[in-house]
Task: structure prediction
Amino acid sequence: MFASIFIPHFPVQSLVRNEPELSGKAIAVVHSDAGDPALQKVVEANVAAIRAGVEPGMTRLRLQHFPEVTIRQRSVAQENSAHAALLDCAGGFSPRVEDTAHDSVLMDLEGLERLFGSYAEIAAHIYDQAILIGLQPQVAVASNPDAAICASRGFQGTRVIPCGMERRQLASIPLTLLTAEPPFLETMYRWGLHTFGDFAALPPVKISERLGQDGVRLHTCARGASMRPLDPHKEPLRFEETMELDDAIAMLEPLRFILKRLVDQICHRLRMRHRATHEVHVRLNAYERVLQLPMPVCDSKMLVELLMLDLESHPPKAAVTKVSVEAIPAKPRSVQNGLFVPLSPEPEKLEVTLARIAHVVGKGNVGSPEVLDTHRPDAFRVSRFDSMKPAAATASPFPSLALRRFRPPLEATVKSRNGAPWWIAFQGFFGPITTASGPWKSSGEWWQQDHWAREEWDVRVRTEKGLLLFRIYCDPNNGCWFAEGVYD
Amino acid sequence: MVSPALRAQLESSFGGRITTPFTDPGRRVGETVSTGIAALDARIGGLLRGAITEIYGGASSGKTSMMLSILAAAMDRDEACALVDGHDSFSPGIHSGKFLWVRCHNLTQALKSTDLLLQGGGFGVVALDVSDLDGKALQEVPLSTWFRFQRSIEKTPTILTIVSGMGIAKTCASLAIRAASDFEFEDRLLAHSVTRAEIVRLRSSAGFQPGFKNVCFNFYPSFSRSIARP
Result:
């Protein structure tokens, strides 16, 4: 058995999908190949607009006589997104899916009864999933691909055609829904044939004589007796949602709502394909930001939060008229938590927390410190914090004395006697040095421009605040003294 | 008959890592963890989870060493830890593993970052170091801020350790320690620091414990030029 999903008024539905507030309104989609607004004509209108009097081919000027009709420009990018979503919807049910047309897909239901129940239940499941991705579908199940496609185009809601009942059930469908050239349909009209049933009643031999092989193929189709194989869709998975805006957006806050809609749609699609994402690309006109995640996620709320924090830190330089979000699919993370797993933050929640903190203190100021492979003092980099990192070996069983660093080191005035410092003054501290331990000489990277050399001292200084222990050093190249930190 | 036996078996399996796991959290005995300083643990019985610990003292008082000791002990337990460094003064090198370092440059950044970390949850110890920040600004931080921090962690296993030049968390802190240190030199070599911790406030599950006492312990320099340790 085969199931076909058909989306009536597809250009309208692909627009409504990203603008749910248009749902239920009369909408006409206009387009002009030349791009001139004055030459735009109606290419599609929904049922409400047609009832109001809108007809395909009507000019935009004439549409202004219908104030109740909302006019939207055709968006090929949004239609492509809706089509990709339709394929994902079908792909979530069956591995064998045919990309029949922009507004319809076909799938093989072989073996799905054990997973989803009867064919009626499968059709209902498919219908519900299509609603979730923002499309109002017509779903039909039949024993052959063409019968399923014709039935989905001809019947609203869901319809299951039992095997052998194709001809009888398809009989009431108008002939205009048969995928045929306009001259053929004109011939049928002249012959007084209006439905599949009318056409199917004609003898096949006479059809062959008058209309040739094409006529026979269409006649077989109208009888629901076509037996062609399904042509499987094999393109790689691509999760991209695009929205073209009529008015440019200059502020970030309105962009949040648009991003939310797009990311919601992408997350629905990822879930239908049993996938998550670890990399999200956001394109605002020509401006692009890439969000890298340490683990695959499929939480739209979290993704929107992270994208917005990233955009607040790196805002686009111009107003936005086109928003596109693409998620790179990855296998979802599956973790079996144990009772004795040590305390650590939830990775998804942690990612949002770190992004928020980075927004407050700057991106380079949050992470795990990593000491660099050099003897240069205070050489480190801040790497990404990994809550899954295993515990490091304990360096020492004794509590260690900590050094609080002055960044950058503070310039100091030091008086020396017999090669040892005996008095010091720097930024608010001054006094005699009661004990000086040193010098500890070190140097490095003499083969580079920024080579360094120093003579370190640990000095106990009697100040107004008591006895304090500082680490100071002298640069032998210029004789300058610096206070590097205080032991605390 | 089976149920109590199963419960006892499960509780013994937890091996003390989770105290009375099947007891109502409101009535559960406060779980404590080591500070990494044996002498201090012996006096205070460890740090209370879900509570604020405050360590304060002037420069060279040993408060930072105590804070790093608490963080190191938590990392030995393989817990994730965070240090909100109010004045970007932490010297990396000792700690690694699940350690998050937030380099702030003013009080507002430090408080906001701490708030976000506590709301996010999941950390064993969050240390807020505001030692080098302006004392007047610290005194002006409303008590409600510390109270909010305390409420954020009170039913979680997170310990918030505040390190400052003066006592700022006041009654919100379950444990307040005032630190002071002296340094011992041997043959002009820095041998160790002798830190005296005065327990100013100690609140355990049994309530406030009177009788303030001092605890003394040593911190040893970890760098190579130090003399041999005992």
Observations:
- Chain B touches chain A through 72 residues (CB under 8 Å).
